[in-house]
Amino acid sequence: MSQGDSHTTDWDAETYHRIAGMQERWGLKVLDRLPLGGGETVLDAGCGSGRMTRHVLARVPEGRVIGVDASPSMIEHARTELGDDQRIELAVGDLAELELDHQVDAIFSNATFHWVPDHERLFARLFAALRPGGRMEAQFGGEGNVREFVGAIETVAGEPAFAEHLAGLETPWNFAGPDDTEARLRSAGFDVEAIWMDHYDEQPDEPYHFMRASGLNAHLERLPGDLAERFMDRMRELLPEPVTLHYVRLNVSATRPAAT
């Protein structure tokens, strides 16, 4: 399995695994949409710390799961979480450069695609990885996702104390809308059976630990000295208590047409 080169900001996998309960709840709903007979090979596209991969593996007791994630610490944690089960293969890699040795029967993805800047290339690589007749079920951040959180980040990042260190930093998210996403999926060759938005208002457990473990790491790693802590202090000042985040999740049910 070749994944190509990928330079990404790493995650605090241990913290994320501990406090990602809402992502697991959403992911179970996505997994329930994926019809599995038990013997398939499933790609967990963006497997993270292995919290959802364990559920995917349980759905294919006679099958296999391939988990790919861009974060080395996530893959390391997933290896510890999942043990030495020979039915799981884990690899660090950029999904937009994905190349598998063999096509998979199904693709599952939860809370991942919005971390990939180039959705056209992402969907092309996933299409190539999926066998004809295979299904993909996915959910990821959509247009308007955590708007208040993103706005607070942009405000603080523009303040003089931080701006010189964060100048030129591109947004780490690609929160796409359903129309653009459907067009990109169809351009890649997928048949799109359904595409829709879900909305959730959530008060995350340990919200600032969660922010540090995921969404803010690209910013914080650029800030020297005590500026990272000062950045977090400013975020606390701007976000109301208790922290409530409005999540917009884009759902995709798509298939690769059967070979003719």
Q: What strand order characterises the main sheet?
A: 3-2-1-4-5-7-6
Along the chain, the helix and strand elements come as HHEHEHEEHEHHHEHHHE
Main beta sheet = 7 strands, mixed
Mind telling me the C-alpha Rg?
18 Å
Strand-residue proportion: 15-25%
What CATH architecture of the domain at 13-143 and 173-204 and 247-255 would you give? 3-Layer(aba) Sandwich
Tally of alpha and pi helices: 11
Total strand segments: 7
What are the segments in which pLDDT stays under 50 over at least 5 consecutive residues? 2-8
CATH class of the domain at 13-143 and 173-204 and 247-255: Alpha Beta
Helix and strand content put the structural class at alpha/beta
- Indicate the multimeric state: single chain
Distance between the termini: 27 Å
Q: Level of helix content?
A: 25-40%
CATH superfamily of the domain at 13-143 and 173-204 and 247-255: Vaccinia Virus protein VP39
CATH topology of the domain at 13-143 and 173-204 and 247-255: Rossmann fold
Question: Could you explain the architecture of this structure?
Answer:
By secondary structure, the protein is an alpha/beta fold. It has a domain of 172 residues: Rossmann fold, CATH 3.40.50. Helices cover 38% and strands 22% of the residues. It is built from eleven helices and seven strands. The chain has a seven-stranded mixed beta sheet, sandwiched between helices. Helix 5 links the parallel strand 4 and strand 5. Helix 5 crosses helix 8 and helix 6 packs across helix 11. It is globular, with a radius of gyration of 18 Å. The two termini are 27 Å apart. The relative contact order is 0.17. The N terminus is likely disordered.
